[in-house]
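Notes from the 1:1 (GR / supervisor)

We went over the backlog. Supervisor wanted to see one worked example end to end before approving the batch request, so GR pasted a single chain during the call. The sequence is below; no edits were made to it. Supervisor asked that the structure be written out right there so they could see what the output format looks like.
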Amino acid sequence: MFKFIFAALGFYFLRGFGGAMLGFFVGTFIDNFQKIKTFSQQQGGAGGRSGFSSDDLFSFYQQRTTNSDFATMLIALSAAIMRADGKVLKAELEYVKTFFKAQFGPQFSVSHLQTLKKFLDSDDIPLEQICADIRNRTQVEARVQLLYYLFGIAKSDGDVSNTELMLINRIAQLLGVPTPEFESVKNMFYRDVNSDYKVLEIENTATNEEIKKAYRQMAIKYHPDKVASLGEEFQKGAKEKFQKVQEAYENIKKNKGFV
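Structure output shown during the call:
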């Protein structure tokens, strides 16, 4: 509306087509500003919740994932982890943005960030429904890799908090990820004196032969080829996870003194 008003005023006061064009551009800028302001208010204003119900948000999620939109699945779980501590940290947002840019390349757009904001601003993220949907659509190897990505978000500020750990554990259960797989990935980020053994899914009392056997099994289970269909950035994460399995094995060998 303003672009036409300012175009007419420009033509009248500046006496010509050039004035009309100048007025048109000024009015267009004002129109766009009004749209952005309205969108921001609809999204919850300055940092407030948007008021979307759990059912509304899941309906939105279903619309976005009708064509197997894996990005929306990732965004929904990302938002849940980012909100776990009650505030969204810059390090977490940068981690997510970097991952999505690498994962989706030119297909990554402002709409992805708007979708992320919708989930971040919602009153309640329907994790049960979303995780059930992801569980039906993906193999367990892909779901384990999802946990690795979620731990990466939690660790991006330098520490995995108890709240984040509990939430990822809940997501793992909802996704149907077996406990040994969850414990293995967890101990790649949340370490204690027995973490190397837990990464290999064995007890610290295991014999040398049991350790070697466990490593061979883990090398097969966590080989990057298992998630070859998920894209370059998931491949990168799978390689990192595979490297952590190798590091755990080398640490145990060094401590126990066998080759």
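Supervisor's comment: Residues 9-13, 19-26, 28-48 have pLDDT under 50 and may be disordered.
Batch request approved.
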